[in-house]
Design brief:
The chain is of the alpha+beta class. It is 38% helix and 26% strand. The protein has a five-stranded mixed sheet, covered by helices on one side. Strand 3 and strand 4 form a beta hairpin.
Length: 104
C-alpha cells in the first residue's frame, strides 16, 4: 500500500489495472482506492475502511473535510462511552439534569 502526498493532479494521474489503495501522508488514515474504472476516497478508522466519496464528484479538499469530521465523531463517541472520562461525566450530568460540578 503506497504512501504519497495526495494532490488533485496526482489523483487524476493514478491508474491501476486492479484495486489498489494509495494512502495520504499528509492526513494519515485517509487515502484513495483506485480501480480500473473508478477512484474512491477512503478512511481507515478502527481497522475498518469507510467510503468518503467518489472522485471527481467530490474534491480532495472535501474528502479531507469528511475525514476530519469522521475522526472527530469517532473520538467524541469514544470519550462519551468512557466512564472515567471527565468529558463524559460532565456530559451525562447535564443530560440527567444534574448541575455540573463547579471547579475550585
Amino acid at each position: 500500500m503506497p504512501k504519497t502526498t495526495l494532490s488533485d493532479l496526482k489523483i487524476r494521474a493514478l491508474k491501476s489495472d486492479r484495486q489498489q489503495d494509495f494512502w495520504d501522508s499528509k492526513t494519515p488514515g485517509s487515502g484513495v482506492r483506485v480501480s480500473p474504472r473508478s477512484k474512491t476516497f477512503i478512511a481507515n478508522r478502527g481497522g475498518t475502511r469507510k467510503t468518503l466519496g467518489h472522485y471527481p464528484a467530490i474534491s480532495l479538499q472535501e474528502a479531507r473535510r469528511r475525514f476530519f469530521a469522521l475522526k472527530a465523531l469517532t473520538l467524541t463517541r469514544a470519550a462519551l462511552k468512557s466512564p472515567s472520562s471527565r468529558l463524559a461525566a460532565s456530559f451525562w450530568r447535564r443530560i440527567d439534569g444534574k448541575p455540573a460540578r463547579e471547579k475550585k
